[in-house]
Design a protein that fits this description.
Elements lengths: L9 H12 L3 H13 L6 E6 L3 H12 L3 E6 L7 H9 L4 E3 L6 H12 L5 E4 L3 H8 L10 E4 L2 H12 L7 E3 L4 H24 L7 E5 L3 H12 L3 E5 L3 H9 L3 E2 L2 H4 L5 E4 L9 H4 L7 E4 L9 H7 E9 L2 E6 L4 E5 L5 H4 L6 H21 L7 E2 L3 H14 L9 H7 L8
Parallel strand pairs: 1-2, 1-4, 2-3, 4-5, 5-6, 6-15, 7-8, 7-10, 8-9, 10-11, 11-14
Antiparallel strand pairs: 12-13, 13-14
Amino acid sequence: MSDVADASLAYEGVKRIEWADRSMPVLRQIRDRFEVDLPLSGLRVAACMHVTTETAGLIRTLQAGGASVALAASNPLSTQDDVAAALVHEYGAQVFARAGTDREGYYRHIHQALETGPDLVLDDGCDLVNTLHTERVDLLGTVRGGCEQTTTGVIRLHQMAREGALRFPMVAVNDTDTKHMFDNRYGTGQSTLDGIVRATNTLLAGKTIVIAGFGYCGRGLAERARGLGARVVVTEIDPVKALDAALQGYTVLPMSEAAPVGDVFITVTGNRDVITGEHLAVMKSGAILANSGHFDVEIDVRALADLAVAVHPGVRPQADEYILADGRRLVLLAEGRLVNLAAAEGHPAAVMDMSFADQALTCAWLAEAAPTLAPAVHEVPKDIDTEVARLKLASMSIAIDALTPDQEEYLHSWRLGTT
């Protein structure tokens, strides 16, 4: 039983899934391995993730490993209805996702995925895990463990663990190098600007782009915005990250000072109320507001609505124009949700190849290791991270050096020094 918008879209979905798959050689190699080893044989997996062509590659890999998979959407605006249809009608997964569904539909789909009684869970923002711990505690006894792939979700999981609320082990896939270093930096950096350009057709060269947050996502955005000729301003609450931004040549300001000078604002903090009514009140007419943090709480959309005397929805796809009392116009993209997935197609498949390879291998590891793990937030084993990087390099025909026996001895001995 599934809930998708239109079964007739399945053929188009298959074509796009196969296109993405060509850029995911690491995941293909793991899928081939899983078909032989069946590390997930007989297990039920419930996932709450963006329903995109790249995610389809992960779902197919888990199925190849012997799992049955139920997938709910982690964002109503990122759901690709043709992919959802293809996963159900061509690949045999259960999918509960419709593009543009409301909040009630969003949580109904999460509940439907959980009704399958999962052994393992995959989450993107912690909403599925949160629902398990608050509304479906009856299912907790069968869940062995799970993976979380976003910064926001990992933050929420650590909070649960500190309060003693987390009931099963969760692995912070987001924190492994081959995920956050590449997915967050190169994926978010490219796909966010892609979404902004698609939604507005604006020229970024010569613009002042304000980036709130200088973690891996913010760094990637700053690098690419500067490469396109923009002047980049960074806002931060962390002194170390702010110093890093300053030493890389970016202007660092508090948001109160950045608000009047910015042309484009991008939030990537994982926190709420980053851009508030106070900031909106002093922005230039024509300023563009975009969010690439996980949830739609970084830009205070309610404050924007309260300031507006008129709203022109859909002036362009995923762009709403708010007219303020003094005649200024502010443009909000993707309703304040993830602009890279709502207004574009999310990260390139070549980036998600590594992130989803981490997910697949971690699921296989969890299937065996979960009984030995405490109900806490765990790191991805280092050998999984290294294996994914090795496979990716091989797919790019890149060779690297290996340590000699003497070098190995030197690195592992405290007795050797200057000779």
